[in-house]
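[job 0412] stage=complex_fold ligand=magnesium ion status=START
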Amino acid sequence: MSERTLAIIKPDAVRKQVIGDIIHRYEQAGLRPIAMKMLRMTKAVAEGFYAVHRERPFFDSLTTFMASGPVVVLVLEGDDAIKRNRDLMGATDPAKAAPGTIRAVYGASIEANAVHGSDSPETAQFEIQYFFASMEFAGG
Ligand code: IDP
Ligand code: MG
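[job 0412] stage=complex_fold status=DONE, emitting C-alpha cells
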C-alpha cells in the first residue's frame, strides 16, 4: 500500500555534506520525495516536533541538537514507506544499526544519528502536517 512518511536529514548529516547521498538512498529504495525543504528549527519548533519525548532525560539535549543547524525535511512516498524508511535508516543507536543502513554509515552517536523517520501512520500524519502545508506537495 502506498504510504507517506516524514524524513529529516538532521544537522549532523547536513554538516557532513551528505544530503545528496541520503536522498539518493531514498530514491534507490523506492521512496519518492514529494515535498522537501531546508530549514533551521528553533528550539521551540524542535520541542513541538519531539513533544512525545518531553519526559525523557535526553529531551533538552535532543532538541538543542535539532536546532543546532539546518536540516532537510522531506515527505517520502512509496509502498510501505514508513517501514521501508525505518529499515533503510537502521536502529536508533548507530553502533547497533545494521551494516549499510544510513545510521550505520553516517550516524555519530545515539543522538547525532543522521536521520529521522516517522514510526507509524499516526506519527507520519502528525509530522507531515507539522512541517508542510498542502500547497507544498509539488509531487503529489
Ligand atoms: P528513533 O529516531 O529511532 O525513532 P526515538 O526513540 O524516537 O528514536 O528517539 C528520537 C531521537 O532522540 C533519536 O533519533 C535520537 O536522535 C534521540 N535519542 C534517542 N535515544 C537517545 C538517548 O538515549 N540519548 C540521546 N539521544 C537519544
Ligand atoms: Mg521515534
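Residues 62 and 111 are 6 Å apart (CA to CA).
[job 0412] exit 0
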